[in-house]
From TrEMBL:
It comes from the Bacteria. It comes from Boseongicola aestuarii. Residues 2-133 form the EVE domain. InterPro entries: 5hmC_binding (IPR052181), EVE_domain (IPR002740), PUA-like_sf (IPR015947), THYN1-like_EVE (IPR047197). This is EVE domain protein.
Length: 137
DNA sequence: GCCAACGTTGGC
DNA sequence: GCCAACGTTGGC
């Protein structure tokens, strides 16, 4: 199993909205970046990901699970764009802020730090465990 | 609100 | 196929 990170601006699609969708989940649409799309194509059902709020909050707030593998993005007719479906699994008791991530040596290689603009990105096993611990799980 | 970093587009 | 111009993202 692999780990991922999904980034969203709170005003566009928030963790609360994701939670409200329950086990039915929702497609992670709107991605218009090849790198991000390619990562989604690599995702398998059962993979887990972090849900990160960009811009104002800048923190990892919860864990999501992939419930449908890559399929055409319903928000466009352009068949280049695909997306996966995800559902909220659980919130982190203590959200992990970007400042914490940047100041932690173990997380210095995270894509979130190195390429802040990529909206869908892979997370290493060790990074996953570190953040889970920081988040209080 | 600014601006750096990055990705994409289109002219040549 | 290169590269300048432009648009977007997201941290600060």
């Amino acid at each position: 199993m692999r780990y991922w990170l999904f980034k969203s601006e709170t005003s566009t699609w928030s963790w609360d909205q994701q939670v409200a969708k329950g086990d039915a989940g929702e497609e992670w649409d709107g991605v218009r970046n090849y790198q991000a799309r390619n990562f989604m194509r690599d995702m398998k059902i059962g993979d887990l990901g972090f849900f990160y709020h960009s811009q104002k909050d800048r923190e990892i707030v919860g864990i999501v699970e992939i419930i449908a593998e890559a399929h055409p993005d319903s928000t466009t007719d352009d068949d280049r764009w695909e997306c996966v479906d995800i559902k909220a699994v659980k919130a982190l008791p203590k959200p992990v802020h970007l400042d914490q991530i940047k100041s932690d040596e173990r997380l210095s290689e995270m894509v979130l730090v190195k390429n802040s603009r990529l909206s869908v990105q892979p997370v290493q096993d060790s990074e996953w465990r570190t953040i889970i611990a920081l988040g209080g799980l």
